[in-house]
Write a sequence for this structure.
């Protein structure tokens, strides 16, 4: 059941860095040394936590993400939003040498998730300055929340002054609820993104956009939809992020949809946006095993998104 009195107060949580052969809470977040370059790449992807073969699928997802990040311009830092993570996923993430060398993590266990089974996590490029990490709980039947990270960038080249960019990784309520829950969840996020003390705000993830009201959630909350801002059209195959990699009976029942989105506000520009994770599968040698379980060999049922972002 939904919590009748959800706590919308940000709940601080640690940030973790790999050093001395282990993941440790990082105390020094370099808050006095904001990142100079006002650029970063954002990747968001939902890795299905319910399909069988979780370790096989997550291992393949991480190999794909490693290659994807290697192909990005090396001078531009990267932030990764992941949804539907499980404890076994977090363990695989922590064991990946490329992540140990390049990223800080918001979560290394389930202690900050409402659900004891699944939740969201961020991988944040070590070159980015993190001022804070927190979660805000929603009214939800599915233990959903918003994971917020404040990044500090050098402000207009002025020494010692910071421009704060607030990021939110979220997995909004699934399916149809009566009354609907996603509008109130997005309104909570938007309130914190419109904080007058910050330079810009961005929310991305699996928005489960399946009802008519989902098409206007950005407008209802004073946000911009990156896909639409860059000329994308609704009800277009090029925008869909769910339905292409599911069993045919599910696709026939529910159709395809643009579940995954990026909204933003303030002094920020999304320069480009593309889908990722298309046709990514487990290793060929594991395909037969997946099929024997009745599971498709795709890493997940969602496409992800990758955006190139400038803080203005």
């Amino acid at each position: 059941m939904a919590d009748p009195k959800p706590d919308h107060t940000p709940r601080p949580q640690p940030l973790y860095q790999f050093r001395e052969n282990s993941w440790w809470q990082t105390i020094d977040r370099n808050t006095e040394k904001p990142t100079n370059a006002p650029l970063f790449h954002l990747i968001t992807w939902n890795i299905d936590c319910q399909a069988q073969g979780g370790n096989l699928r997550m291992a393949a997802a991480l190999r794909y993400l490693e290659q994807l990040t290697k192909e990005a311009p090396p001078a531009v830092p990267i932030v990764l939003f992941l949804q539907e993570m499980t404890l076994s996923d977090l363990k695989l993430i922590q064991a990946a040498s490329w992540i140990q060398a390049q990223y800080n993590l918001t979560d290394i266990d389930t202690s900050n998730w409402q659900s004891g089974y699944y939740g969201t996590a961020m991988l944040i490029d070590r070159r980015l300055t993190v001022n804070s990490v927190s979660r805000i709980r929603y009214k939800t039947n599915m233990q959903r929340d918003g994971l917020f990270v404040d990044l500090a960038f050098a402000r207009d080249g002025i020494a010692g002054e910071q421009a704060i960019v607030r990021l939110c990784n979220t997995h909004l309520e699934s399916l149809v609820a009566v009354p609907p829950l996603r509008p109130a969840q997005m309104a909570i996020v938007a309130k914190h993104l419109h904080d007058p003390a910050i330079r810009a705000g961005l929310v991305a993830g699996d928005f489960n956009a399946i009802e008519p009201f989902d098409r206007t959630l950005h407008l209802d909350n004073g946000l911009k939809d990156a896909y639409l801002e860059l000329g994308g059209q609704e009800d277009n195959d090029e925008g869909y992020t769910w339905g292409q990699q599911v069993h045919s009976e599910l696709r026939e029942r529910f159709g395809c949809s643009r579940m995954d989105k990026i909204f933003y506000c303030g002094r920020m520009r999304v320069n480009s946006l593309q889908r990722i994770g298309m046709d990514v599968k487990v290793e060929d040698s594991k395909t037969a095993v997946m099929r024997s379980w009745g599971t498709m060999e795709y890493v997940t049922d969602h496409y992800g998104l990758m955006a190139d972002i400038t803080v203005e």
User: Anything to note?
Assistant: Helices lie at 54-71, 87-95, 97-102, 182-193, 217-220, 226-229, 248-254, 287-292. The two ends are 42 Å apart (CA to CA).
